[in-house]
Amino acid sequence: MKTVLVVGGSSGIGKAIVEDLIVSHKVINISRTKPEEHLNLTHYSCDVTKDELPVLDEIDGLVYCPGSINLKSFSRLKIEDFTEDFNINVLGAIKVIKAYEKLLLKNNGSVVLFSTVASFLGMPFHASIATSKSAIEGLTKSLAAEYATKIRFNAIAPTVTDTPLAARLLRNEKQKESLENRHPLKKYLKPEEVASLACYLLSDKTTSITGQIIPIDAGIVSVKI
């Protein structure tokens, strides 16, 4: 039974990933909030941006889920906003990867990171999040090249997903309908859809996939109707 480390597995997409994996994997979760207990789950309470990371013995895969949705006009964004988003989205991921690099090397591991459709498609009020997530895309491709044949690195770029993080964007029926209509498939995402793609990228079915930024976007990036 393989072991997967999920950072941020207590809510949203991370929680859906844990629920998908836990049936057939040992799952280690690192987050500030403890998820529901399970025989195959080990939890460490930790803020990865501030705290020392736990010492682990074995991991075959890693998913870094923490993120932010800091939507403001550029004129309202402060340098501190960019710094905070970069710390959560990029430096946190780097810290975790560096901490468990040797374990991933030992097991020819797979790493899944998260970008956003706003890195593909210019959107107003997304300057801070698009900046940090674009850095994740560069990190993904660079590490995929550097660790080729040893560790696979891929990133998923979702559109709006029905999670607590996006609750402000989906706060009423009018907002939900507006977001649905912006997408060619007339929908936004459920966390389980994104989780399925993450678990697929972790699996032995994707041993020939690395360095990819994969949109799951209900058509918003590449389709116009």
Oligomer: single chain
User: Can you identify the CATH superfamily?
Assistant: NAD(P)-binding Rossmann-like Domain
For the sheet with most strands, the description reads: 7 strands, parallel
Strand order of the largest sheet: 3-2-1-4-5-6-7
Approximate helicity band? 25-40%
Distance between the termini: 45 Å
Structural class: alpha/beta
Percent strand equals 15-25%
Query: Which stretches are poorly predicted, pLDDT < 50 over at least 5 residues?
Result: none
Count of alpha/pi helices:
6
| CATH architectural category | 3-Layer(aba) Sandwich
Number of domains: 1
CATH class: Alpha Beta
Summarize model confidence as the mean pLDDT.
95
Instruction: Report the strand count.
Output: 7
Q: Please tell me how large the radius of gyration is.
A: 17 Å
State the shape: globular
- What is the N-to-C order of secondary-structure elements (H for helix, E for strand)? EHEEEHHEHEHHE
* CATH topology heading: Rossmann fold
